């Protein structure tokens, strides 16, 4: 293998390793854990710069990735602006900076910079259909690992985590510290897994005769597709075991809505697409869910009320911060230290996040950046739907199907939780946004991946 190819493969598989590693240290929900991800990203990016310099290549990703990279770069520069000394007094801020907590803004700056560099390398090195397939597959493998680990811990009642000795709870957490974040992570990996599976479905029917159909079903059961299907079942079991109300609801709502769109507009629909989608609701949700306690999720949904929840009050009490700092925000990462001085009465618990990503981004970064990031996601969602309708490559269509489910899920789940504040989930979601653009813009492969 030429040296150039070896360098390129090394960086590509390093990116895959980072995706797999990111959720393992407590879901990166500790400063040391998120710092380790940033360290690995910065190291790989340094190798990337050396690689491109030695071969006289441009270090910049292709231009078609700008709709994702530019918003991330602008957000990174915005955080630098919030930390710049001397600007605070110009805008009547109590500190010398626009940020009300520069130390926390610096932490968020490093996270955002790492995500920006990671996305740029994904666009640079996922350069063909084979690598896109492998990158999507590593996301599925990551979800499978999390699903097996979470289900194993949860089904062994009373067992603590063997690595970090985290105490047992009756809701699956896996390597995360918060059940809803595991649910969000599994929903995202499930979405990509569904897309990969759809990309491998046959476009041709198996014939009208019963024996032809039976042979087609038998071939599907004995094929590698069944390994992916079993992996998805394991992830769904773990998702149900999280007992996450919105995690489960948002995933199945997203799956249903994107599936309805696909039934009408998917270009050259695979023959077994409807059967596969129905199986997720009949086999996975109803039958498997009945075994592993989907009724407990249903019970939590029925018992939910505004009177018993304080998340709506947190959102209400966060609105004055947005009204006071609508343009520049209070500073990236500053919600933790800013919010306590704005809520009038103590809550039943301590809220270091808004439990609403839209509100938290608006509080910390201001409305312009929040709208910019929201526009980036909506553009990627539109691009995925457009790819499903217009492209003729099953791999790109299937991956776009999965990306669309993931984005709709995230848009729904972000209304009641703070999943994007987790570096591991943010890195995974940025990877999915990147995949949606790559599936739309990469050239058509000469042969089908499967």
TrEMBL record:
Keywords: Ligase, Membrane, Transmembrane, Transmembrane helix. The keyword Chaperone does not apply. It is a multi-pass membrane protein. It is found in: Membrane. InterPro entries: O-antigen_ligase-rel_domated (IPR007016), WaaL-like (IPR051533). One of its GO terms (molecular function) is ligase activity. The keyword Glycosyltransferase does not apply. The chain crosses the membrane at residues 7-24, 30-52, 64-84, 104-125, 132-152, 182-205, 226-243, 249-266, 273-294, 358-382, 394-412, 424-443. GO terms for cellular component: membrane. Residues 231-373 form the O-antigen ligase-related domain. PANTHER family: LIPOPOLYSACCHARIDE BIOSYNTHESIS PROTEIN PA4999-RELATED (PTHR37422:SF13), TEICHURONIC ACID BIOSYNTHESIS PROTEIN TUAE (PTHR37422). This is O-antigen ligase family protein. It comes from Shewanella hanedai (Alteromonas hanedai).
